Structures are given as structure tokens and as C-alpha cells.
Amino acid sequence: MPGARKMRFTGDAPSCCELRVMDDTETTLREDIVAQCRALNASGLNQGTSGNISVRHGERMLISPSAIPYDRMTPQMIVSVALRDADGAYDGPLKPSTEWRFHRRILLERPGTAAVVHAHPAHCTALAMARRDIPACHYMIAAFGGNSVRCAGYAPYGTDALAELAMQAMAGRTACLLANHGMIAVGETLAKAMWRAVELEALARHYILSLAVGGPVLLSDEQIAETLEGFGHYGLQEDGTPSRS
User: Fold this and answer.
1) Torsion angle, CA of 8/10/16/17, rounded to 10 degrees?
2) Average pLDDT, stretch 180-205?
3) Of 224, 238, 105, which is closest to residue 159 (Cα–Cα)?
4) What is the pLDDT of residues 5-43, one digit of tens each?
5) How many CB atoms lie within 10 A of CB 75?
6) How far, in Å, CA of 93 to CA of 83, rounded?
7) What residue ranges in the chain does DSSP mark as E strands?
8) How confident is the model at residue 237 (pLDDT cuts 50, 70, 90)?
9) For the chain, what is the domain count?
10) pLDDT at 242 over 90
């Protein structure tokens, strides 16, 4: 969007106005965020405006704005936040998602992560309300980096305390649950983060169903390690197509 006029906000009110030209990469990333926010709701992974998505763009992150219905969201509304500014200085006509703090921490402290998806899918959220980790009930647990998906402790939404708890639960993992809240999934690309979000909700559903028939037989650490070794050729490939071979 060459020539797009941007306002620089550092708090509740604009501090100045500036002319800012976006490169083609940023334009594409903004379009992708809008498309995937809409996909979250269309797929049933999220409801209303409760979810949010961010992607890395150089030393900044692009993140969905706060309280905007996805069917009204446009690429111009996506907010650009400085990754190295703990106060969340941002560019844009709207405020960033209230959850910008854990998005910023994840992207800042995990250089290999390029995208973060947060949503409130039904089965993940049910487990989060019960404050239950997802154990090694299925080999797909390995898609999230280990033998469990942890449930972070509770803190109010949009707080530094929640960001810290999320970082602890995400250690060595690519997803976590947030107690009495929802879930987070990350990826090397936005497509990979979305794929993990879908797989996590499926795993949560299967785990809950298994509890109704006596509970799952858990896989051993050795079995999960064997699966992890094979995951180099499993999941979403670079061209965006899923593979289970």
C-alpha cells in the first residue's frame, strides 16, 4: 500500500503523524493476517473477536487490532508493534490486540518463531478451564515439541503476568493452553502456526472423548521420541500442503 498514511501511537492518543510506505512483504503479511483471522472463525476455532494473530516483520510484529470484527477488518487496520519496546509502542489507526504482550514476548525471545495464533476453541478451552495438560495420548502430541502440551497457570488477560506464564508453558513447545482462557500455537510461518492450531484442537477433542471411555493409554517417552525423529517429513510442508508420510 504505497503512500499509506499512518499515525504513530504510543499510548491512548496519537503523538504524531507520519507518511509510511509499506513494502510488498508487509502488505502480503497484513493480507494474510486478515485472511487467517477470518479462517479462525469460519473453521470454528474461534468466536467473535476473542482470538488474535501476529507475525514477525523484521524488528517489528504485525498484529490484529483490538475488538474489530473479522469481517470488517482490513489490512490497513493491522497494527505494527516494536518488538524491542516493552511498553508496546505501535503504529496504526487502532490499538493492538490486548494480548500483544505475550505475542511480543514469544516473537522476541524465540527467533525461530515467525507467527503466533491465539484462539478460544471449544475443546482446548474446556481443558484449560479444568487446568489440565494434554498428555502423550496420541502420537500427534509430538507436533508440539514433546510429550505433552502444558496448561499455563492463570493470570488476567492482557497482562505481563499472563505473558510470563505463557512463556513458561511454551518452553520447548510450539503450543500451550492458558488456564481458564484458551490456547496459543506458534510456527515458522503463519500457515504452520494455523496448522498447529487446528491439530491442537483436534487432539484436545480426542483426549476429552477418550476420558469418557476410561481414559487414554499413554505413549512412552521413547515412543514419542521416535515420532519426533520422523516429524521432519510430517505436517505442513514448505509449499503449504499437508503431509503424513
Assistant:
1) 10
2) 98
3) 105
4) 333 443 333 333 344 568 899 999 999 999 999 999 999
5) 19
6) 18
7) 5-9, 14-19, 52-57, 60-63, 79-82, 90-91, 115-119, 151-152, 175-178, 182-187, 235-236, 242-243
8) low
9) 1
10) no
CATH of the domain at 156: 3.40.225.10
Least confident of 56-70, 90-104, 110-124, 223-237: 223-237
Residue with cell 514433546: 146
Question: Is 226 an active-site residue?
Answer: no
Reply yes or no on whether the pLDDT at 205 is more than 80: yes
Q: Which of 31, 59, 99, 226 is catalytic?
A: 99
Q: How far apart are the first and last CA of the chain?
A: 40
Long-range contacts of 29-35 (CB under 8 A, 24+ apart): 29/55, 29/57, 29/62, 29/190, 30/62, 30/75, 30/76, 30/78, 31/75, 32/190, 33/62, 33/63, 33/64, 33/75, 33/78, 33/190, 34/64, 34/70, 34/73, 34/74, 34/75, 34/78
Residue with grid cell 503504529, as numbered in its chain = 91
CA–CA separation, 139 vs 147, rounded Å? 9
The mean pLDDT value for 141-156 works out to 97
Q: Work out the number of other CB atoms within 10 angstroms of the CB of residue 24.
A: 9
The boundaries of the domain holding residue 178 are 5-243
CA distance 107 to 56: 7
Amino acid identity, residue 215?
G
> What integer best gives the mean pLDDT of the chain?
90
The confidence band for 240, taking pLDDT boundaries of 50, 70 and 90, is low
